[in-house]
Amino acid sequence: MEYTSGIGVMSGTSLDGIDLAWCKFAEDEQGCWHYEVLKAATFPYAPDMREQLAHATELSALDYCKLNIALGKVFAERINTFVGDDAKPDYIASHGHTVFHQPSVGLTTQIGSGPVIAAETGITTVCDFRTLDVAYHGQGAPLVPIGDQLLFGQYDACLNLGGFSNISFQSGNQRIAFDVSPCNMGMNLLANKLGLPYDKDGNTARSGKVIPKMLDELNRLGYYTQPWPKSLGKEWFDQNIMPIFDTYIIYNAIEDCLRTFVEHVAAQIANAIPEGKNNLLVTGGGALNKFLIERVQNLWPNKVVIPDELTINYKEAIVFAFLGYLRLHEKENCLSSVTGADTDNCGGCVWNVKKS
């Protein structure tokens, strides 16, 4: 088998940092995919960049465009540091950082300029993976399920716990996937109010008590009864979750609000797993939240698989490297069964760099 190597770049809604995974991929004669992670690293955002990204939806058009360029330069700097003196990979596949995601009006935007990354690194760059699917009337998300199907198909279902939780699973001959609920975005926000960057191991939530009325309001949000395909964005969080937080934080301990939110996330995850699934692969930063995993396990009685930390922390970056491979080889990398698009498609803009 002939392997191709690429770096997957992922910046999630929880603003934890920039995940880089340098992988190599090959397809054997039987059509089975093989991959290896050569190395991986996370680069935290500088405080000023984190602040700009947190408020990107409020920027003027000019400042928004400037942030797109600035973030592309940050990505390129981190990639150059990551690669160092090693031989360069064949390509970079960058998810970018989502700012606006409103597929109902045909809109999704990810910043972190692909041309800048290509020019600053000297490496062919694939970016802008979502917009073609949205143009085909799809959600443009989630994109990871094709990687779940082809790279992690030994599991009945795959759950990612990032800024939002999302799940994918096989149903008959098609892959189904959707965003389940907000996750780390909400937990981190509440932990920040206690001066914590995040709730390590879920210990703060564990110390709190469930607020029944708050839990009921969260669970009754209309999104949870909508059929798939469906996806979530920061705008939805700000419009639906923040008012509930603001109401209950006034009269209740933050620890109790956090405990309630964890219960909400666990309940929605348990509700999202279809019958007949016997094992669940859990990745993303939330997989390290021991209390959240305990609550999921309590509400869903089958096998919850927590893999090695490399897979936990970098699965999305690994899959984006894979999506870049598929795009460069003109293979479909976005499934209409997942997004609701008119057709399967091969998304991503390619910025070619001439080989010296």
What would you note in describing this structure?
The mean pLDDT is 95. The chain has 356 residues and is of the alpha/beta class. The strands form three sheets. The protein has a six-stranded mixed sheet. Strands 10-9-8-11-12 form a five-stranded mixed sheet. A two-stranded antiparallel sheet has the order 5-6. The protein is built from 13 helices and 13 strands. The protein starts with a strand and ends in a 5-residue tail after the last strand.
How are the elements arranged and paired?
Blueprint: E1 4-11, E2 18-27, E3 33-43, H1 47-54, H2 61-83, E4 91-94, E5 97-102, E6 107-111, H3 114-121, E7 125-127, H4 131-135, H5 145-151, E8 157-161, E9 164-171, E10 174-182, H6 184-192, H7 203-206, H8 212-219, H9 234-249, H10 254-272, E11 279-283, H11 290-299, E12 303-305, H12 309-328, H13 336-339, E13 349-351
Parallel strand pairs: 1-4, 4-7, 8-11, 11-12
Antiparallel strand pairs: 1-2, 2-3, 5-6, 7-13, 8-9, 9-10
